Amino acid sequence: MQLREITNADTQECGRIIYEAFRGIDDQHNFPYDFADREAGLQFAEMVINSPDIWGVAAEENGKFVGSNFLWEFDEIVGVGPITVDPSAQEKGIGRKLMQAVIERGKDAPGIRLLQAAYNARSMSLYTALGFDIREPIVVISGSPEVEPSSEYTVRRFEEDDLEACSVLHICVHGYSRRRELRSLSKNFPSCVVEKDGEIRGYMTAPNAGLLNHSIAKKEADMEALIAGAAKITGEPISFLLPTRQADLFRWCLKNGFRVGKPFTLMSMGDYREPRGIFTPSVLY
């Protein structure tokens, strides 16, 4: 087995394995598929392989592509995933080597983060053994909120001029910037901000994109207004990953028509600061 950098020529096989590997684990635990079909896996593979801000590593066994992993390098904290191995090639240590490759790639970053499917004991054990610490229990939340934003707030689409204020807000809550990723996502998704008294109090990057979506807010009331307003702006159900330790916000979501989906675990290596505000991570961190 050998590792090498991933290339455009790997897109078809990478997309197939992403779809089949996630389908296999979802079938085992009776969860909805993260990738609805093989075409969805292919589209995702094209996106990550073609991004200049995402580094990919491929695993080959006897010259055959059998797995991949990615490191998202938009900002100072880097995020891992997805890591997938062909179901026919699992239980051979390929996943460990793919994880070691991205850890080596990200060794100069202040921190490395990932979200791990909490029902997958194998990956949780592997990531812990490799040095990742468990930080937050997470669940997928999805639906259309049965509430309007409070009249104290204005929720609107993100504009380029909002980038600095949103970046400063993220630094205040987490201690680091996520500026480049926010700018990239806002070009492809209906990102939103919430304002009160003329001040940006929070933002959401990708309300309808589920696992790619992350958000930040100063206080719980700010996040509640942001969630309700984002759903109204998009006119579609929204989804996000909610840290369940934010118990009051969790109860608000359940009260207002949201449903709970898959459980995840936020894990980190290197620098980690307890958030000083309300947040929802993406599938990276």
Molecular structure report:
This protein has 285 residues and is of the alpha+beta class. The protein folds into two domains: 2-109, Aminopeptidase (3-Layer(aba) Sandwich); 141-280, Aminopeptidase (3-Layer(aba) Sandwich). It contains eight helices and 14 strands. The protein has helices at residues 11-29, 38-50, 94-105, 121-129, 163-174, 179-186, 220-234, 247-255, and strands spanning 2-5, 54-61, 64-72, 77-80, 84-85, 111-117, 133-143, 153-157, 192-196, 199-204, 215-217, 238-243, 259-270, 278-280. Helix 1 packs across helix 2. The two termini are 30 Å apart. 43% of the residues are buried.
CATH class of the largest domain: Alpha Beta
CATH architecture of the largest domain: 3-Layer(aba) Sandwich
Largest sheet composition: 9 strands, mixed
Shape assignment: globular
- Estimate the mean pLDDT confidence: 95
Number of individual domains: 2
The H-level CATH homologous superfamily of the largest domain, spelled out, is Gcn5-related N-acetyltransferase (GNAT)
Distance between the termini: 30 Å
Beta-strand content estimate:
25-35%
Find the structural class using helix and strand composition: alpha+beta
> In angstroms, what is the radius of gyration?
19 Å
Binned, the helix content reads 25-40%
Q: H/E element string?
A: EHHEEEEHEHEEHHEEEHEHEE
What is the total tally of β strands?
14
What is the CATH T-level topology of the largest domain?
A: Aminopeptidase
Outline the low-pLDDT stretches: none
